[in-house]
Amino acid sequence: MSLFNPTLAATAQSNPAPLAERMRPRTLDEFVGQEHLLGPGKPLALAIAHDDATSMIFWGPPGTGKTTLAKIVAALTQSTFIEFSAVMSGIKEIKTVMVAAEKAAEFGSRTILFVDEIHRFNKAQQDAFLPYVERGAIRLIGATTENPSFELNAALLSRCRVYTLLALSEAQIVALLQRALGDEVRGLGASGVAADEDALATIASYASGDARNALNALDVAASLAAEDSTRRIAKEIAAEALQRRVLLYDKQGEQHYDIVSALHKSVRNSDVDASLYWLARMLQAGEDPMYVARRIVRMAVEDIGLAAPEALNLCLSARDAMHFLGPPEGDLALAQAVVYLALAPKSNAVYTAYDAVKRDIEATAAEPVPLHLRNAPTKLMQSLDYGKGYQYAHNVEGRVADMECLPPSLAGRRYYHPTQEGREKLLAQRMEEVARIRQSKRKL
Questions:
Q1: Is 115 in contact with 84 (CB distance < 8 Å)?
Q2: pTM, whole model, 2 decimals?
Q3: Which of 12, 34, 118, 442 is least enclosed by beta carbons within 10 angstroms?
Q4: Structural domain total, the chain
């Protein structure tokens, strides 16, 4: 079934397809990777073998074979394959196709509707699939790079089986590149171009697990090598074809949160090298540097705290430096802050103390302020005992009064438990000193 204008289709056939499209696997035997799904006895392999008609979602990074798998499933189940992109197609167009598929199903014809980037449809649009999926009029296969739990309608998700695809290993990508170089029909075998092992390894490393990017880079490198007398892809030619490392990073998606989580947890674990690596991954991939700066400030107050109180000022200065300089010079200011935070003594005592206070506020009554802590600017307030019994700390010995400042129901509650790390060790000693002074006055 064709969804394209015949003239456009003829024009497309006259132009050679990209290498990645030509080398797209046509059978499971040609498919590389995803052994956890397609190996003997694995879930997707069994579903295909048993011709399971359940709709499914393929979730994984770009270039891992989501579209290819959908086409293979359609071929093995002898189904009509209709491919849509949620970016290019509207739900009205898809509904028209679903109605046609439902009519075809009455005559025993099966239709697989493949929707690439299905997360681009909003929740209301995704609802349009439900009746057709439930009636079995279509078998929906959606592909997404985003976490289906967050991006897909719960009703639709409950009717689909989710398969998680993993980024390809460098060895797997090298194997795909070698296959493309040797294939004389669909690949580059007829061109006579060969490649050094380190050149293929470079392309595989730079592809970040994306087979499509790797094959596209090989195609460019082969064109460059064809102009050379050796007709060989050396490492230098591979690097020229790549230009810049392919970094998988979506500022609005899961990669965004995964990498900032890795940065934060590396800092918390005092791993300075990992902290620098994840910081650079974010910045090199185009993350908003001010977002990174805000997260670094958060680390200073959440994980360093009063063990190294100067960390907060350092991080605020790094933020200001980034705002003043901008990237790439400002990147060094953030790197300096991250190195300091990773190596600084750690304490979350203030973080946990404040959290405990909030829990008590929610769990206890909002008691009035004790009378001795209230201000008494008028005679009426003084007559009502506002301020009565208040002790001015500067006028008592040790400058610590034996006076309860919490509400009666929380009297004696202790929230802040300083660690023995960094400056906080001194604060712990001071708290012990205050407790001794208060205790000595109670004995009098």
A1: yes
A2: 0.59
A3: 442
A4: 4
